[in-house]
Design goal:
heterodimer; A: mainly alpha; ABC transporter involved in vitamin B12 uptake, BtuC; 14 helices; B: alpha/beta; Rossmann fold; 2 domains; 17 strands
């Protein structure tokens, strides 16, 4: 590092180095600051675009999530919890696969097929007189459908290395058309609206969303333990880091892929079952409503950690509730509220850069030698990807992959 | 200092209280609120039509924005029930929903809150549910489509007179094979047939209420089959823009497409929901009952035709439309007069329609009396679902 002689080489204006370790609280602070700055920016935009003063703008987010009187508060807080729970459940479903770098973007279709299966059991199961038996069959059918829809791409990936991203994406469309087909078949009047199914309702003591929310909370805990403290969870992480290493230490990679996607399918099945039996009591092509894709953001933002996902799911739902209120209060279309959600999420993702890297600006009187040379350690990839199928996206995902041993920071 | 701040706060509070009180005095129905649940937002012409309607009614009644709460993007599931409850919690005395699939969830909310009125457009179950606070509404839009068909017929006639190779063959892009759509395209066809008796029509379905690509390709498929004029019942610009591209005259729906299709736009029929919104607000404010099934008509101002296009329609179109409209109003003309159409070559003398919704979709009500099909009389939502001669369905999968 004796660079006194290299004064001729000009130091760049901005210099980026990897940030080895940042205390937990500091990272949290940066993230909070990012959300705050994003909101401030949005409130400025809101002032110019929809004529909302900052007080009204922030007021909409408070009102959207907590209402303006006691009865509304109760309804909206429960809605916040329930919507968070359903999003969290689907995020949990995609997470194991993501941890092994299997880019499953087919949760939308997997949940939709499960919902369709559950609804089909009610539609065709008029002969099943006992309600509990009907619910059990609905559950089994939903889980089976979820597994089929998620394992199919996994098998193609394991046996022939078919691109799972495209495969799972396409399966979403197939699922949506299956639902459209079933609806045409089930509604001879041509309306394609099934309406509320009279049977197959999960009992709901206390608040109608209580059991559902608690179930998801329980599953979150189980998934955390499974991913971080079980042998199978460790195998998933190893496969994610390097399939060659996994093979070398005797892990059956194909088996892990199929097994993990089966688990995804089970969780998607549960989500689909819940949508039909506990929430909507019907199925439409928009029953999942894009949550299968939003769940991907939730999972990534939480760096595939189920406990952090509670927070990221809550953030996304909070944003959406507030955005919905913006549309109502200011009588605007969803275009502007969607921009707000987009900006906040962009800032949250963007701030990760400042947590992971340090930015150095050129100082007039500073010596270039004080900054480490560019390149080398800055590349940040924890693993070489032997398959190289990740293409352009291969580098970014690598940085967000959690630590091998899975210790919670 | 502390005292000063306290007294200042008190003064501000009192002034604020006075303002609220005074504002309350000026409007006897200051605490009246209506909630509106919409499937999409302004980007859908269907929902936009409801937004226009409720805003017009709001203006006419002098209600403030906080008294008219519009919730957009509410799917046809549990979220509709949630939204309805939420609107009740916010103090709405009447809650309205605009999409067919909202119905069961509105009924669920209506049963839970008997003191609040629930109104639902396009629904079919109010007359069988028999709840005091649940109501359906629709409009006799088939009359509007019939009149739009008259305008189309005049254009078709002029085209045939100008060029004797033009065949009287027209096309229609439909959403689903659902009564609302069938009633719509049949009435449009009968309007054209009134002017050009030899006309035939092909119908292509898209299987979606809003799918711009599908609607455009359906229109192009019809044009490829030799259709010389197109109309549609679907909510996007797909069919009108396909027509404009090819220079084929088009009859639109939900609103004028003159601005984007200046060369081919003839006329558009639409339901104006403002009279209904006004009606349910006034009834609720006065504590009076709302009709279980409300059918808006030309008379109530619910069925409307837009202004004619500037280029495509023929000269005496408006006068002819007015003449037919007067006859419909007077009751001397009926759109579904059994003398004007045949089914399988026969005149229809009896038909049972599925008016009361049940799981098996059983036909239950005799709807042909006095020589015509009584549409939207036994319930507000259309139930005309007969395949009449002269209309060919290209695809029946929907």
């Amino acid at each position: 590092m004796a660079s006194e002689h290299h004064n001729a080489v000009k130091e760049p204006l901005i210099h980026i180095t990897k940030n080895a370790a940042m205390p937990f609280w500091k990272g949290l602070l940066i993230r909070a600051a990012a959300v705050l700055i994003a909101f401030l920016l949005c409130s400025i935009l809101a002032f110019f675009l929809i004529g909302a003063n900052p007080l009204e703008f922030f007021g909409a987010f408070i009102k959207g999530n907590f209402g303006s009187n006691a009865m509304m508060a109760k309804l909206r807080i429960w809605k916040l919890l329930k919507d968070t729970a359903i999003l969290l459940l689907i995020a949990l479903a995609v997470t194991p696969a993501f941890r092994m770098r299997f880019w499953n973007i087919g949760a939308e279709g997997q949940v939709l097929m499960s919902a369709l299966a559950a609804a089909a059991v009610v539609y065709y199961g008029k002969g099943i007189t006992q309600e509990w038996l009907l619910l059990v069959i609905m559950f089994v059918a939903a889980v089976a459908a979820g597994i089929i829809w998620s394992v199919l791409p996994a098998i193609f990936k394991a046996l022939w290395n078919a691109n799972e991203t495209l495969f799972t994406l396409m399966m979403n469309y197939v699922a949506s058309f299956f639902v459209a087909y079933a609806l045409v078949k089930w509604t001879p009047d041509g309306s394609s609206v099934l309406g509320e199914l009279k049977r197959g309702h999960l009992p709901s003591p206390g608040n109608e969303y209580l059991i559902f929310t608690l179930t998801v909370l329980l599953i979150t805990g189980i998934m955390f333990v499974y991913l971080y403290y079980s042998k199978q969870g460790y195998e998933i992480s190893v496969v994610g880091e390097s399939q060659r290493t996994a093979r070398y230490i005797g892990i059956n990679v194909k088996k892990v892929i199929v097994r993990t996607m089966t688990l995804s399918g089970v969780l998607c099945g549960l989500a689909g079952f819940m949508i039909v039996a506990a929430l909507d009591h019907t199925v439409t092509t928009t029953s999942v409503g894009g949550r299968g894709f939003t769940a991907i953001i939730v999972s990534w933002l939480a760096k595939f950690n189920p406990l952090i996902m509670i927070g990221t799911a809550l953030l996304v739902v909070f944003l959406n509730q507030g955005a919905g209120q913006l549309a109502t209060t200011f009588r605007v279309s969803f275009a502007f509220p969607d921009v707000v959600v987009g900006i906040v999420i962009f800032f949250v993702i963007g701030c990760e850069f400042f947590i992971r890297y340090k930015v150095h600006f050129r100082h007039k009187n500073r010596h270039a030698a004080e900054v480490p040379a560019p390149g080398g350690e800055g590349s940040g990839g924890s693993g070489e990807n032997p398959e190289k199928e990740g293409g352009g996206g291969g580098e970014r995902p690598a940085e967000v992959i959690p630590d091998k041993g899975g210790k919670l920071k | 200092m502390f005292k000063k701040i306290i007294s200042l706060c008190l003064a501000v509070l009192m002034v604020a209280g006075l303002c609220v009180g005074l504002a309350g005095c000026t409007n006897a129905n200051a605490d009246f609120k209506i909630g509106v649940i919409l499937l999409h937002d302004e980007s859908s012409t269907y929902d936009k039509n409801f937004i226009n309607g409720v805003e017009e009614a709001q203006k006419a009644l002098g209600l403030s924005n906080s008294q008219v709460i519009i919730k957009k993007g509410i799917p046809e599931g549990n979220e509709c029930y949630e939204a309805a409850k939420d609107l009740v919690a916010e103090g709405c005395k009447v809650v309205f929903a605009d999409s067919f699939g909202h119905e069961d969830y509105m009924i669920k909310a209506a049963k839970e809150f008997p003191a609040v009125q629930f109104c639902h457009a396009t629904g079919t179950k109010a007359h069988t549910e028999k709840l005091d606070n649940y109501h359906n509404a629709f409009a006799s839009i088939y009359e509007g489509r019939y009149l739009a068909g008259i305008a189309a017929g005049l254009k078709l006639k002029a085209m045939m007179e100008a060029d004797n190779t033009v065949q009287p063959h027209i096309g229609y892009v439909g959403a689903f094979t659902y009564a609302e759509v069938i009633s719509g395209y049949t009435s449009f066809y009968l309007g054209v047939k009134e002017i050009v008796p030899s006309v035939t029509m092909d119908v292509q379905f898209t299987g979606s209420w809003y799918d711009e690509t599908e609607e455009k390709s359906a229109a192009n498929a019809l044009l490829a089959r030799g259709c010389v004029l197109i109309s549609q019942h679907a909510d996007s610009m797909g069919a009108p823009s396909a027509c404009e591209d090819k220079g084929v005259p088009n009859v639109s729906y939900n609103g004028s497409t003159e601005s984007s299709c200046p060369n081919t736009f003839i006329v558009s029929s639409r339901i104006d929901w403002a009279p209904y919104f006004k009606y349910i607000c006034e009834q609720t404010m006065a504590g009076k009952a709302i009709e279980t099934d409300w059918t808006g008509t030309i008379d109530t101002g619910s069925v409307k035709l837009t202004e004619l296009g500037k280029k495509a329609p023929v000269a005496d179109t408006q006068a002819t439309i007015d003449r037919y409209q007067a006859e419909l109003k007077a009751g001397t003309r009926h759109v579904f007069d059994t003398n004007n159409f045949t089914v399988g070559g026969e005149k229809l003398t009896s038909y049972k329609a599925d008016v009361d919704t049940d799981d098996a979709f059983t036909p239950d009500t005799e709807v042909i009396k006095d020589g015509y099909f009584h549409e939207s009389e036994f319930r507000s939502a259309p139930y005309f679902d007969i395949a009449i001669d002269g209309i060919t369905k290209i695809n029946e999968k929907f």
